[in-house]
Amino acid sequence: MTTVLVAGGTGTAGSAVVDELHARGHRVRVLSRHAPATARDGVEHVPGDLLTGSGLASALAGVEVLVSAVNGVDRTSRPVFTDGARNLLRAAESAGVRRAVLLSIVGVDRVRFSYYRALTEQEKIYTSSALETTVVRSTQFHQLLRSIFAASARVGLVPAVRGARFQPIDPTDLARALADAALNDGAGARFEVGGPEIATMRELAEAWKRATGSRAVVLGLPVPGPPGRFLRRGLNLTPGNRYGSITFAQFLADRG
């Protein structure tokens, strides 16, 4: 039985890996600034703040493996990728943690988004630490595409970026990869995981419409500049690493 601390364990990916590790019979701690609304049986919640360092030492006491699934969704919280990573790793090294697993994004170092730049810096911070680190780069979650389509459909349109393809993965599939890396000695410095299928954004938008009964119009949109080239070149894809088993259509059907 291994003791694993999951930073960001209340988020989409973090919650899934907590459930996966717990189901495998390991001791799991969830590190987040605030306690989750609903406690999970057999899972310990520990409060801590990555930016101030408050609570990190006690949270990491006795921990063998650290899994980071933190997310800085806006400019205010984005320093969790950099300053937060340094604080967390410093505390982990002091606590004698032997291994770290970091969740990142496929193609993160291939385009100059500010969000991606912060994630790339986070990878460097982790791989330069004293911990044996595995970086797991994932494609986008099904939930991201669903939220984009649902939000836009409120004004009668569903966007489909021209030339863009996606390989969405279910968080439960990703959680298996993260758990495997956490529990596997010598898992490797970095690997990629993606969903079971690659589809154009228009095909995914049409699938969402069929599943929801939406009457919104699918609108093809151009995306200029580096972001458009990134998508048209398929740098967000990992065709040789179809790790997931749940398709976008299955995801939509399972969630009504």
Quick recap:
The protein is α/β, with parallel strands linked by helices and 256 residues long. Helices cover 38% and strands 20% of the residues.
How is this structure best described in words?
With 256 residues, the protein is α/β, with parallel strands linked by helices. It has a domain at 3-139 and 171-193: Rossmann fold (3-Layer(aba) Sandwich), CATH 3.40.50.720. Helices cover 38% and strands 20% of the residues. The chain contains 9 helices and 11 strands. The chain has helices at 12-23, 56-60, 83-95, 114-127, 142-153, 171-183, 201-212, 225-232, 248-254, and strands at residues 3-7, 27-32, 43-47, 65-68, 99-105, 132-138, 157-161, 165-166, 190-193, 199-200, 217-221. The chain has a 7-stranded parallel β-sheet, with helices on both faces. Helix 1 links the parallel strand 1 (3-7) and strand 2 (27-32). Helix 1 (12-23) packs across helix 6 and helix 7 runs parallel beside helix 9. The longest helix is centred in the middle third of the chain and has 14 residues, at 114-127. The chain is globular. The two termini are 36 Å apart. This is SDR family oxidoreductase. Residues 8-142 form the NAD(P)-binding domain. InterPro entries: ComplexI_NDUFA9_subunit, NAD(P)-bd_dom, NAD(P)-bd_dom_sf.
